[in-house]
Specification:
This protein is α/β, with parallel strands linked by helices. It folds into two domains: about 5-135, no CATH class; about 150-345 and about 385-415, NAD(P)-binding Rossmann-like Domain (Rossmann fold). Helix content is about 40%, strand content about 20%. It contains twelve helices and 16 strands. The chain has helices spanning about 5-20, 55-75, 115-120, 165-175, 190-200, 215-230, 255-285, 310-330, 350, 355-365, 375-380, 390-405; strands at about 25-30, 40-45, 50, 55, 80-85, 85-90, 95-100, 105-110, 130-135, 155-160, 180-185, 205-210, 235-240, 290-295, 335-340, 410-415. It has a seven-stranded parallel beta sheet with strand order 12-11-10-13-14-15-16, sandwiched between helices. It has a four-stranded mixed beta sheet with strand order 1-8-7-2. The termini are far apart. The chain binds nicotinamide-adenine-dinucleotide. Nicotinamide-adenine-dinucleotide (NAD) binds near residues 161, 215, 241, 343 and 347.
Length: about 425
Amino acid sequence: MSSIDCTRLAPLVRGLCVGVSQQSRVVISGSIGKAVSSQVLTVELGSALKEDRLDEEAAALVLQEAYAAWEFEMAPSGAEAITQKATVEKYPACIVIHIKDNPEVVFWIDRDLDTVRKRAEQEDISVLEERIPQNDGLSDPRSNAKSRGEVVKNKIALVTGGAQGFGEEIARALAVSGALVFIADLNLDGAEKLAARINAAEKRTAALAVAVNVADEASVEGMFRRVVETAGGLDLCISNAGVLKAASLLEQDLGSFKFVTDVNYTGFFLISKYAGRLLRLQYRTAPSWKTDIIQINSKSGLEGSNKNGAYAGGKFGGLGLTESFALELVEYNIKVNAICPGNFFDGPLWSDPEKGLFVQYLRAGKVPGARTIEDVKTFYESKVPMKRGCTGPDVMRAIYYIVEQEYETGQAVPVTGGQVMLH
Ligand SMILES: NC(=O)c1ccc[n+]([C@@H]2O[C@H](COP(=O)([O-])OP(=O)(O)OC[C@H]3O[C@@H](n4cnc5c(N)ncnc54)[C@H](O)[C@@H]3O)[C@@H](O)[C@H]2O)c1
């Protein structure tokens, strides 16, 4: 039956395991040759078919009920289940799904991509366990803040425009913090090279390249399909890809205005639409698991930018989208926030020796008296109260804050060294 789309099943299965373990999990589809024992969760999903299409809410309910019945059989109970103020939750590493006359679908689950691939290869059906700390009501909630990088450990993240600039900084930092990162970029070659460097440094599959044009709907949809096929779902989506074509209002042609708007504004809409659909699917089986969509906006989303209207306009609009999407997606425990960085002077946009903004401004004589690139840089740095440009680590602190913060959505977090402040 062609209407059963496996890429809609994987996030539901992933949500189920994430909901039980309260940890991010990687889910891949595979097969099982050995006899299925009671360690495997077998689910008959036929009743979730409505007019030959999978009803996601009904499917989530069937999965949760099947797990509850399996859990009853497998999990320890009473005093045995509670050890040292932690409940031991058991859940299957292999789930087999039957849907009427369709071939069975087999999913393998584990905490990271390398382990789950090995598990599927070896057909290791041994049950997974997670110790869930019990809240005894005595712990001080103020001491609950996690160390920054911990908040993304083992999570699955995607960064658009991840091949260079801020996106590269974010992808690298997330990988170092223990996340699995999809580096999504128009420049697939650059994304692949970066992923290879990250994986060599991390000695694990920490990054994967995926091609996307964020301004093209079919491309965005295909990218999220690839993510689900590879890892089962997502926890954190960072919409970072952006372009800049500075021009006077009186001179700019419509084509270049539309190009900037398509990538920076429409691109964020498309990324949020398909990320939102995927995260909502996971929510169906993991209703208490919070996920994030973060737009890398700009200080130009907070304050106009002379002869740069297409860019600033799209970034202002991005904050309107952020607030609106946040209101709609809060129902599914999806937070939507934006980060508004100041200028990344050390990144390629400014510092590229041939086409960077510093060299362009030097050639154009935009900074009176400037003779070298250093002079131009000093001029721009002096505009920042903190006297330096924004860096990757500055943006990462904002990302970790947003992911950790459970009680905020629809916000713009400025990271501008004091150059632009909220009104
Ligand atoms: N550089 C800055 O000073 C600065 C300051 C504030 C905000 N920002 C924002 O940070 C984000 C990243 O900027 P950057 O300076 O690192 O940019 P960059 O030009 O260095 O890198 C952008 C990346 O996005 C990719 N990309 C471009 N168009 C794409 C598309 N249609 N689909 C997929 N990928 C695409 C490029 O291939 C590139 O890898 C942007 O949203 C930008 O507006 C940058």
